[in-house]
Amino acid sequence: MNLRFQERLSYALGAVGKDMAYALASSYVLYRKYILMDEKMAEITASLQGGNINER
């Protein structure tokens, strides 16, 4: 299949854009998971120490 330069460029930019969108989405998911784990760890630590996390 012979594609013009503009068509090849369009496909290349689309593939790169899709990969960037996947990378950003996965970074956000991992970031949120880290934040939620950090909050949960703070709750567990506070409960083990007999305190309330909201007292800080």
What would your notes on this structure say?
The longest helix is centred in the middle third of the chain and has 44 residues, at 5-48. This protein has one helix spanning 5-48. The protein has a domain at 20-56. The chain is rod-shaped and about 70 Å long. It is 79% helix and 0% strand. The model has no long low-confidence stretch (mean pLDDT 85). It has 56 residues and is mostly helical.
Brief overview, please?
It is built from one helix and no strands. With about 55 residues, it is an all-alpha fold.
State the major sheet.
none
* Strand residues, percent: under 5%
The count of DSSP E runs of length 2 or more, i.e. the number of strands, is 0
Mean pLDDT: 85
Q: Structural class of the secondary elements?
A: mainly alpha
> Which runs of at least 5 residues are low in confidence (pLDDT < 50)?
none
Judging from the principal axes of the Cα atoms, what is the shape?
rod-shaped
**Rg (C-alpha, Å):** 23 Å
Separation of termini?
A: 65 Å
Number of helices in the DSSP assignment: 1
